[in-house]
């Protein structure tokens, strides 16, 4: 097998830079491998990639792989491609976040690279999508190169956040918590409460802890709760009451904190949630590069193999170097499955509003 190669599309962006550093700092690629930093010709992206490569070489000269600069989609020939390029919603809390316009803007970027990868000779690469809307990106790349080669990493970052909030609530390390978030990387995320496991607590204690966390809330109300609390929190941020916003979100249950804190970070840190975004991608990328398989919550194109669902949604899948294989059914509770079905429906509606008919 040839030495591993990874391409970061959007390497000059804040998330792309963080991922490049993580790959080299963790020595995820051997010296015989290749890291492609992908941007576009003209303007700031082209200039910044030269500086980024020089900076990375200075920092990691003792063990860095070959670092290449790529400015055209046709030049991407790595066997794992990470999609981090595209627009993001504004970081101004006073501005209106138009997700439909974001989808229309990024559709062009997704399509350009997906078509270029489809024209490549030989087997298609494995593609990790972390640009938003994640589900739209997965749909576009899955159409072009095959659905089993494409995953979205948004659900893994959501699962990381959910585990952390549960850990904070119960005074344990995040590594002691097992929990998945399925559905959409957005308002229709699905926290799988029935699958939460906390190391050191017997099942009855976990059940009691979950009951306290959920506070008799109905899971079907979660999307509306997310929308309502987000408006409340962003109003505080827009009024420069950032401390109050973070204090308020800390009072909410773990699933709402996991869904809402990223918005506070986005609107207060000056740019998107770059650190956790890159970290989530690095964790998924490490599974592929290590040649192992692991069950992860990832956005994939389903074709009936999971509760007869069709369309893009996050599901627990067995993921490895060649993409995802099987869906691992976690035996969802009725309310979780109902919310997941709603999520698939909403994602399908959103994608259909911008995707050309096949």
Topology overview:
Layout: E1 5-9, H1 14-25, E2 34-38, H2 44-60, E3 66-70, E4 80-83, H3 99-118, E5 126-129, H4 134-145, E6 150-152, H5 154-170, E7 177-178, E8 181-183, E9 189-191, E10 197-198, H6 203-214, H7 222-238, H8 242-250, H9 254-268, H10 274-289, E11 294-303, E12 310-320, E13 323-327, H11 334-352
Parallel strand pairs: 1-2, 1-4, 2-3, 4-5, 5-6
Antiparallel strand pairs: 7-10, 8-9, 11-12, 12-13
Helix pairs in contact: 1-10, 3-4, 5-9, 5-10, 7-8, 7-9, 8-9
Q: In summary, what is this structure?
A:
The chain has about 350 residues and is of the alpha/beta class. It has two domains: about 5-155, 3-Layer(aba) Sandwich (Rossmann fold), CATH 3.40.50.720; about 155-358, L-2-Hydroxyisocaproate Dehydrogenase, Chain A, domain 2. It is built from eleven helices and 13 strands.
- The CATH homologous superfamily name of the largest domain equals Lactate dehydrogenase/glycoside hydrolase, family 4, C-terminal
Average pLDDT number: 92
Tally of discrete structural domains? 2
The number of helical runs is 11
Number of strands: 13
Unreliable spans: none
Largest sheet: 6 strands, parallel
CATH architecture descriptor name of the largest domain: Alpha-Beta Complex
Coarse structural class: alpha/beta
Strand composition percent = 15-25%
How does the overall form come out from the CA principal axes?
Answer: globular
Describe this structure in words.
The structure is a single chain. The strands form four sheets. Strands 3-2-1-4-5-6 form a six-stranded parallel β-sheet, with helices on both faces. The chain has two domains: 5-154, Rossmann fold (3-Layer(aba) Sandwich), CATH 3.40.50; 155-358, Lactate dehydrogenase/glycoside hydrolase, family 4, C-terminal (L-2-Hydroxyisocaproate Dehydrogenase, Chain A, domain 2), CATH 3.90.110. It is an alpha/beta fold. The model has no long low-confidence stretch (mean pLDDT 92). The longest helix is centred in the first third of the chain and has 20 residues, at 99-118. The radius of gyration is 20 Å and the shape is globular. Helix 5 crosses helix 9 (254-268) and helix 7 (222-238) packs parallel to helix 9. The chain starts with a strand and ends in a 6-residue tail after the last helix. Helix 1 links the parallel strand 1 and strand 2 (34-38). The chain is built from eleven helices and 13 strands. The chain has helices at residues 14-25, 44-60, 99-118, 134-145, 154-170, 203-214, 222-238, 242-250, 254-268, 274-289, 334-352; strands spanning 5-9, 34-38, 66-70, 80-83, 126-129, 150-152, 177-178, 181-183, 189-191, 197-198, 294-303, 310-320, 323-327.
